[in-house]
Design goal:
By secondary structure, the chain is of the alpha+beta class. Helices cover about 30% and strands about 15% of the residues. It folds into 3 domains: about 30-90, no CATH class; about 95-210, CBS-domain (Roll), CATH 3.10.580; about 225-310, Uridine Diphospho-n-acetylenolpyruvylglucosamine Reductase, domain 3 (2-Layer Sandwich), CATH 3.30.465.10. It has helices spanning about 25-30, 35-40, 50-70, 75-90, 115-120, 145-150, 175-185, 205-210, 245-250, 265-275; strands at about 100, 105-110, 125-130, 140-145, 165-170, 190, 200-205, 225-230, 235-240, 285, 290-300, 305-310. The longest helix is centred in the first third of the chain and has 22 residues, at about 50-70.
Length: about 325
């Protein structure tokens, strides 16, 4: 008999209850072997936000503990790496993942079809930014699929097939951008600086690669920055050659707390020393080490190639010159 809503004090007749089933743990209910229960038991009673942070820390500690103390298969190692990368997305700003402005392949709104097809043959990207006048005035995105769909239409214009562009702050979290891209179905975003200028570009592929690692397709080629030593003792170096790799070859010649905090590449180091982007032919000296840099090639935004003189002796070859 169900109690009447009009008589809240009325109680239903007592019935004999069958023996209760043995209690099941949360792990038994979900089939997770008790892992979720174990994680939750690590946490004291806290506010939801604090509980989320504590659970995240517990997962990170579990990953580290497994990595240090237990033999793991290749699959298990890969799974730990994926989980760790996902956790890092929470605090990773999109600026850390974006393609820098200098590497953006974009087209003018006034480009001719012949020029467009030539560019696509040389740079086979699936999407291209469209700008008016200059790169800071992005007006949209074109998808190669839309171009192919209009090949038989000789009268189509770029503006007719453009899609909206997504603009984000460099401080936006990568995980938030991934969610926004998923909801908006826009898979490319532009990172703007405090003055509204285009600082870089980020795609859904960049976000996925932050989790699973580099994903190369059939159009990507190995263009690793090079440093080539010459018979006269100097070296020719790409501007993007990593400082860490340089020091792996020649020792720790740059101040750890000085240059390393600001830049990662040799070109960035020279720009940091001078306080501006040096022009072609400019010679820059790193005073503490005596290394001399000559700018062989540069554009207004970056150093492309350097000649390096007064290279230090390689570690382990103290009596030999390079």
């Amino acid at each position: 008999m169900t109690p009447s809503l009009n008589h809240p004090m009325e109680e239903p007749p007592k019935k004999s209850n069958p023996a209760p089933d043995p209690p099941q743990s949360e792990g038994q209910k979900t089939g997770d072997g008790g892992i979720l229960t174990w994680m939750k038991n690590l946490l004291p009673n806290k506010e939801p936000a604090q509980e989320d942070d504590s659970l995240r820390e517990a997962i990170e500690e579990l990953i580290e503990e497994k990595a240090e103390n237990a033999p793991q298969s290749a699959v298990a190692i890969h799974e730990r790496l994926l989980i760790s990368n996902i956790l890092q997305l929470r605090d990773l700003p999109v600026k850390e993942l974006m393609v820098p402005r200098a590497d953006i392949v974009a087209i003018s709104l006034d480009i001719s079809k012949d020029e467009l097809y030539t560019l696509l043959a040389e740079k086979p990207h699936s999407r291209l930014p469209v700008y008016r006048d200059d790169m800071d005035n992005i007006v949209g995105i074109i998808n190669v699929k839309d171009i192919v769909a209009n090949l038989k239409n000789e009268n189509f214009e770029i503006r007719d097939i453009m899609r909206d562009a997504l603009v984000v702050s460099p401080a936006m979290r990568a995980i938030d951008l991934m969610l926004q891209m998923r909801q908006s179905k826009v898979h490319i975003a532009f990172v703007v600086d405090e003055y509204g200028g285009i600082d870089g570009l980020i795609t859904i592929n960049d976000l996925v690669e932050a989790i699973v690692g580099e994903i190369d397709d059939e159009y990507e080629y190995d263009i690793t920055p090079q440093l080539i030593e010459r018979p006269d003792g100097s070296a020719i170096c790409d501007g993007r050659f990593p400082i860490k790799e340089f020091e792996n070859r020649y020792g720790d010649v740059f101040a750890e707390n000085e240059e390393h905090e600001e830049v990662d590449t040799m070109g960035g180091l020279v720009t940091y020393i001078t306080g501006h982007v040096p022009s072609r032919g400019e010679v820059v000296r790193h005073q503490p080490s005596g290394i001399e840099f000559e700018v062989i090639d540069a554009d207004p935004r970056r150093i492309i190639r350097l000649r390096i003189r007064n290279l230090p002796r390689k570690p382990g070859h103290a009596g030999e010159n390079i």
